[in-house]
Amino acid sequence: MPTETFEFQVEARQLLQLVIHSVYSNKDVFLRELVSNSSDALDKLRLESLRDDALDVDASDLHIEIETDEDARTVTVRDNGIGMSYDEVTQLIGTIANSGTAKFLKELREAQDAAGTDGLIGQFGVGFYASFMVADEVTLVTRRAGEAQGTRWTSRGESTYTLESVEDAPQGTSVTLHLKPADPENQLHDYTSAWKVREIVKRYSDFITWPIRMTPKPAPATEAAAEDGDEKAAEAGAEAAPAPEPETLNSMKALWARPRDEVSDDEYHELYKHISHDWRDPLEIVRLQAEGTFEYQALLFVPSHAPHDLFTRDYQGGLQLYVKRVFVMDGCKELLPSYLRFVKGIVDAQDLSLNVSREILQQDRQIRMMQRRLTKKVLATVKELRTKAPDDYATFWREFGTVLKEGLITDSDNRDAILAACSFATTHDADEPTTLAAYVERMKDGQDDVYYMTGESRQAIENSPHMEAFRAKGIEVLLLTDPVDEVWVDTVGPYEGKQLRSIAKGQIDLGDDEQSATDEEKEKKEKQGEEYAGLLGWMSEHLSEDVKEVRLSARLTVSPACVVADASDLTPALENMYRAMGQEVPKTKRILELNPEHQLVRALNQAHGERDDHTALTETAELLHALAVLAEGGQPKDAGRFVKLVADRMERTL
Ligand code: ADP
Ligand code: MG
Question: Which of 180, 486, 514, 625 supports an S-S bond with 574, CB 3.0-4.6 Å?
Fold first, then answer.
């Protein structure tokens, strides 16, 4: 096959441009990315050779090799791993196979400042393309294990790359970087020097479980031969010298098996970057060493940013599973519940079979036990984070609070631990969210329930009429604005014996501060009940198409009216959510509550008792209902009619 030239996919081209022009200060990481890819390729080859005896592969000395050439200014990273077929090279290197790419690149372009761009690039994991930060040409030669033909890929990082078939490629992949011209100002970045390579590997890739080797250059030939400039003489000189021993640059020690105090945070962070393809440091490290009959070690990481596709079907969660230090599976979802799918890391089990399959994992009792324990450990770590590092906890909550709360719906066994890791916006403090425990501690004498209200935003909830009596009496209300909040509050059950109660649902009886007031209050209520009986009955009938009932309210101090739901009813937001998911939901009628102390309500009551011309009355009743709906952020049923009624009245008052 002749050499063919191809265009990079648009997204790939844009990403390349960003990498090339990125001011990402730490260019050293290109080597980490290449080594990381080689390591993955070796893992895959080992797994494939185990699964398929017939596969014609050489898995005898799996390793990574780095070679530098000062004169040619090249660095080569070579592995004898799985390699890529011709088609795979096109798919994997020429395109970015990610549905979120378009959206992501838009964010990238919008991130004006360099720091922002680097952060976003990091989130995406440019991986192989990082080579173009230091090289002006990259050549990749690869042969897929078990195939005869190899492939050579070359690109200068501009809009095109070339592909050709090659006959004599060894199994695996070698990537050769033709480095950009040396910068005399900055000798530190001479990637052809052995000590520089050694240092980078030690720093970023020490834990890689495959040997990373570097063969020192043969000792220079004798001066005479060198001066001769005669190729033959140089060759003869090289032959004469004893072949130099390759040096293994990494210790290959599994970080999760080493005592915690022996490993620095930096080392943990590099491992995190290798397994997560994230360029940023993790927020928190979680270690677990389980001993006894079923022994395993876990090294988990809570990232510092939620991936952009966390809530899509495409999201690839899951941990890496090792058995006795040997990598056996990636994306192992059985080890953590779905609401912790953002956690990355490694679990190394002593007693599983190396041939363990996903089907086995799904039914394995030991895996379930591990899941239980890992879940508790992660939740406990998050809870501790709040006191240990409040800023980190705030980051955690911003990034992962929503997904964690899914657990309140799906994992009743860990309900208390999840609640303990959650925080909630509250009327108690405009900035600092609260825990349920702190809320309960602050509860007033005689308050039996934990009050909350769900809504679009903090502001919308705080301005809603339902809040009035709570504000007047200084009773704390949790402000829940996540769509998922609508769901879990109904399923979660009592916390420390206290029921969670929506202030927009059911009857509210806030009791009274002083016992002595009770009798007086009762009497007043009874009197009001009698006074308003006629109006309430008439309005209930007149508005029966839209409301189930009209009654007097105990939650209003300022507004004339509000709408509430029965304790068991769906909230309007939840109704909308179900409809958006395509489910049939019958329209639930709500309850209209009137404030008996309000001038307008009083006047309406009086008018209802006196007059028999009811047009003005019915219009006022309708308007009251519309105002109540508007006040909680809803829409009046007939906006045109509402506007006309209001305009008429305004005109009359002039
Ligand atoms: P990532 O590693 O995050 O998937 P990269 O850009 O680093 O992204 O690599 C893209 C893909 O190219 C890899 O997922 C892998 O399938 C393939 N690849 C890269 N390097 C190698 C290699 N040395 N051997 C085999 N496949 C490779
Ligand atoms: Mg990679």
Answer: 486
